[in-house]
Design brief:
heterodimer, A: 93 residues, alpha+beta, 3-stranded antiparallel β-sheet, two-stranded antiparallel sheet, 3 helices, 32% helix, 24% strand, B: 394 residues, alpha/beta, 9-stranded mixed β-sheet
């Protein structure tokens, strides 16, 4: 379950703020993804600062009933290598 | 608000930026949309080009489509390529293949390019006969040699970029086979009546029934085929093709030309769509964010004559440049409207094709110039009248 795992933004990805949220660009696979909610942008940015996804969602203020939807969005981002699992002792940068 | 509505209002920086580095070209393709051939003496210097790249990095324009002319014949091309890659601006460049030697192919495949470089080789026929007809003698072999060199050097996933014409729509499967043979991805784009394309559009643009062939082929086999979002006018056949399906001109798309002029889109190099210049007007960012033309393009558009068509929501009236360069009103149907409104508009007769506002075509034809003549395939129906006075009745 992704909610209980530790994740972080992929090192090859840059976020560009936009009115709707952000553009995420992966320099490695050249995929461009649109993060369509400002909350999702904050979640992605802060993944590395929290022990797991669930605590990141709480910190950003995403209500619990929406956690499943966010987990699904994050799984999609993981498929495109926009975010990566974080291992023991690994920092945000 | 839906994402596409955000795009219609414009973003803080473009998503898809085309940058033509030079008007110089070794070829003289009949349908060149920038009327290229000769270098312009005002073209950006290396330092000015580097400054543009620095600005793109600050604006987080993640990649740029470099074209021309033939960009690789600019002596500082390889330097600018590395400069961009080292400044987090990925490069996809279009080439006819002339400078893609085994050495350059090895460089492109090397860590120096870090996988941030994409190469797009132009080919407008799956056979030399069809390709050279519009791109000029020898251009097919040149492109194939480039693809072979890239493959031999271990450069993976080059692109074969095809402008779809009346002559090559029947070769779609052959193009796909060529791409597979060279480990490449096929990219199909639409012929625009821009630049010299205006002179040959009537003869080259796909016939209405071929539009359907193209649409059906894309629906059936288009999964791994790129289209640069260029066929959104076909969405009126029914199901939308993947992509944004809207005209991004001045909203998410724009063009920087070799002298630094910024136009609303790569297919609209004309004074009417000139937003400013990167050397004046506050740099590229100033032009993108403050130009009146772009503000106008980002304001809500009315569908004009198309608003009452039930397919307006899918095709959004089609391509602005295609309408402009065929002399059709910008708020009317696309000249290749698949519902047939374009043909009626073209036939109406009161349209005026706009004069070109720049032309860098070579002053005199060279041996590379395409000769768009075909041999007769049927013998003449009557013998030639050989008398010098034939038909003369005093």
């Amino acid at each position: 379950m992704i909610l209980d795992e530790a994740w972080r933004l992929s090192p090859s990805v840059a976020l560009r703020p936009e009115p709707f949220g952000a553009l995420a660009y992966h320099f490695g696979n050249r995929k461009l993804t649109f993060l369509k909610r400002p909350e999702l942008v904050r979640v992605v940015e802060q993944l590395a600062d929290h022990p797991d996804v669930r605590s990141t969602l709480d910190a950003v203020g995403v209500p619990a009933p929406q956690h499943a939807a966010y987990a699904e969005a994050l799984a999609g981002l993981a498929d495109a290598d926009m975010i990566r699992p974080r291992h023991e002792g690994e920092d945000a940068t | 608000m839906k994402l596409v509505e955000h795009f219609e209002l414009g973003l803080d920086a473009p998503i898809c930026l085309t940058w033509e580095l030079t008007y110089a070209c070794n070829l003289e393709c009949a349908h060149c949309l920038s009327s290229s051939g000769r270098r312009d003496p005002r073209e950006l210097t290396t330092a000015q080009a580097e400054a543009v790249i620095d600005e793109l990095q600050r604006m987080q324009v993640f990649y740029v489509n470099i074209g021309g002319g033939e960009p690789t014949i600019r002596p500082d091309f390889w330097h600018l390529l590395e400069y961009a890659v080292n400044h987090q601006v990925g490069v996809k460049f279009s080439t006819n293949g002339v400078r893609i030697t085994p050495e350059r192919a090895a460089f492109l495949a090397s860590p120096a390019c870090g996988g941030y470089v994409d190469v797009q080789v132009s080919l407008d026929g799956a056979t030399a006969e069809v390709n050279d007809y519009v791109r000029g003698p020898g251009s097919y072999d040149m492109a194939i040699t480039a693809l072979q060199n890239l493959q031999d050097a271990g450069f993976s996933d080059a692109k074969i970029s095809v402008v779809c014409t009346r002559q090559n729509i029947g070769q779609l499967d052959e193009f796909k086979a060529l791409a597979d043979q060279y480990g490449a991805t096929l990219r199909l784009t639409r012929l625009r009546p821009s630049g010299r394309g205006a002179d040959v559009w009537d003869e080259l643009h796909p016939r209405p029934e071929q539009q359907k062939v193209l649409y059906d082929w894309l629906m059936a086999s288009g999964d791994n085929v790129l289209t640069g979002d260029s066929f959104f006018h076909l969405a009126a056949f029914g199901e939308s093709l993947p992509g944004l399906n809207l005209c991004g001109a001045g909203r998410v798309v724009c063009l920087i030309d070799p002298v630094g002029d910024v136009y609303a889109c790569p297919f609209a190099i004309h004074d009417n769509f000139l937003a400013g210049n990167v050397l004046a007007d506050g740099g590229f960012k100033g032009v993108w964010q403050n130009s009146e033309l772009f503000a106008d393009l980002r304001s809500p558009q009315t569908g004009g004559a198309c608003a009452k068509c039930s397919f307006y929501d899918s095709c959004r009236g089609g391509c602005m440049a295609a309408k402009f360069f065929t002399g059709l009103p910008l708020d009317g149907p696309d000249p290749e409207c698949v519902q047939g409104y374009g043909e009626a508009a073209l036939a109406s007769g009161d349209r005026m094709i706009p004069a070109a506002s720049q032309d860098h075509s070579k002053a005199n034809p060279t041996r590379n110039q395409p000769v768009m003549l075909t041999l007769m395939t049927r013998p003449p129906t009557s013998a030639c009248a050989e008398s010098p006075l034939a038909g003369f009745t005093p």
